[in-house]
Amino acid sequence: MSVQVFGLPVSRGVAIGRAVLVASSRVDVAHYFIEPEQVGTEVRRLKRARDQVCREFEALKLGVQGDAPAELVALLDVHLMLLNDDLLASATCQWIEERQYNAEWAVAAQLETLSRQFDEMEDEYLRERKADLEQVAERLIETLARGERATGVRASLGVASDDVPLVLVANDISPADMMQFKGGVFRGFVTDVGGRTSHTAIVARSLDIPAVVGARDASRIIRQDDWIIIDGDAGLVIVDPSPMILEEYRFRQRQGQLERDRLARLRHRPAVTLDGQRVELLANIELPADAAAALEAGAEGVGLFRSEFLFMNRGGHLPDEEEQYAAYREAVLAMRGLPVTIRTVDIGADKPLDRMTLGDLRHEHSLNPAMGLRAIRWSLADPGMFTVQLRAILRAASHGPVRLLVPMISHPSEIRATLDMIARTRAALLTEQVACGEVLVGAMIEVPAAALMLPVFLRHFDFVSIGTNDLIQYTLAIDRADESVAHLYEPWHPAVLGLIASTIRLAREAGREVCVCGEMAGDADFTELLLALGLRSFSMHPSQLPAIKQRVLLTEVTSLEALVAQVLSSEDPRAVWQAGRGRSLLGAAAHAA
């Protein structure tokens, strides 16, 4: 019998597939698929790790005999028994052999399966043994993580072990994990937690993958390999659907693909409104390889290269100058003379490094990471790291047009320090006779202070880019990753729209380019409003470009500009905009008739 689970619809469309559960654990678990020829190697990794943990337990037993209570020795015996039991040992190997999970993931998957069996036991003593099982499994995962990883594994997930479509189910997915899962294995995502602007939701939308977040008990209700449907339009997850429901949703999938194919035909058509307003549509990318997708989608350049993803999944080891230079150069060359905007590393908050360090100072446990040492604050606090990145960016600029974008800047002192470091780094390269290029320098407007003192910014920077995700978060004091307040995260809030409108107006009056590169840029519900506010440059994930271009092509900006004053002075801007837009459309239709 099918079960329905409701959550928040954050990425449209329908996904159908078997569930892959990423179990929560008190230790970090690497999740990736292995190649078929690596199965034997990975099974041997698992067995070596199990033998190592057995030796450690035996050594502990010898070390405590005579000096410890008999209960402790008995507990170690229980752990040894669990470690060698076929329910953990052989079954874990099956996950590797049949689904081609890496060893750590196989242990976590089997732990998830066994944990549910323990939860259903009537005997209280047996139920309590679940904690022993968790301790053994986590010891095994830690031992695997310490040892040598299997060689030749994929840097990101590629194709599954067979043709069975897969959907990912988890309590939550970190940004680093999302990068690992970016290779196209999963048709959709379901998470227990998260809001409409959580990182999982943003990445799912950018990849054009159906997703439902905030589904509460999804990872408890759904079991490994269950067939599930993700309805990204309704925020609905259907577990074990009937044949009739399956066929209905498969029809909807086909219709959705036809619509995407139709939009794809617009890729090479210039983005010009009905009344002749030229609009620039740019792409957001995270890795150099994404540039190809940007060109394929018809992007006129890269409006945001999120350089922090070069720093993730590295065990805290930062990329050196040559590695960064090679990555930035690859993106610049791939764009064939179109501009590439590289944002300096925006680490912190929902994008932590595996091991964030500043000298010997650890700060990953900041009480409030979103307000702490992140983005340009972190870069200025670690001038050695920042200089390495600036050198790499300036060197890449010798191969094509590059813009440098500074995130989360808010103080005049930060402006001076940043521009001084850029100038000194460029001077050093010229002294060393290292090839480098000129760059335009811009500021992210994502802190209310920056929007409120924009005239100061415009005296120092060549352009500005509005990061709507953080601007909304900081303006409304809402942690966008906290599901308990996610309903208060409101892009239509009068204060938010007021800051966006004034930023666009002041930048245009000063003759400076202004772009929106946050979620609002790729949301068709805001396209017409942003155009009416005067925005002529949007940057989004390549998959969102066709839908936004279609909206631009169907918009007559001059018919909507009169609405702006009413919207910005209203307590309910969304209602005023929708009502006024409806009247404008009716008027345009009557005029055409």
Termini separation (Å)?
54 Å
The pLDDT mean sits at: 84
CATH architecture of the largest domain: Alpha-Beta Barrel
Tally of distinct domains: 3
What strand line-up does the widest sheet have?
1-8-7-3-4-5-6-2
Poorly predicted segments: 148-161, 354-365
Radius of gyration: 26 Å
CATH H-level homologous superfamily name of the largest domain: Phosphoenolpyruvate-binding domains
Secondary structure: helix percent:
40-55%
Look up the CATH topology of the largest domain: TIM Barrel
Structural class: alpha/beta
Instruction: Provide the β-strand percentage band.
Output: 5-15%
CATH class of the largest domain: Alpha Beta
Per DSSP E runs of 2 or more residues, the count of β-strands stands at 18
Anisotropy-based shape: globular
Tally of contiguous helical segments: 23
* Largest sheet entry: 8 strands, mixed
Describe this structure in words.
There is one protein chain. The chain is an alpha/beta fold. The protein has three domains: 3-22 and 156-262, Glucose Oxidase, domain 1, CATH 3.50.30; 36-146, PtsI, HPr-binding domain (Enzyme I, Chain A, domain 2), CATH 1.10.274; 269-561, TIM Barrel, CATH 3.20.20.60. Helices cover 46% and strands 14% of the residues. It is built from 23 helices and 18 strands. The protein has an eight-stranded mixed sheet with strand order 1-8-7-3-4-5-6-2. Strands 17-16-15-14-11-10-9-18 form an eight-stranded parallel sheet. Helix 15 (412-431) links the parallel strand 14 (402-406) and strand 15. The protein is globular and about 75 Å long. The termini are far apart. Mean pLDDT is 84; it is low at 148-161 and 354-365.
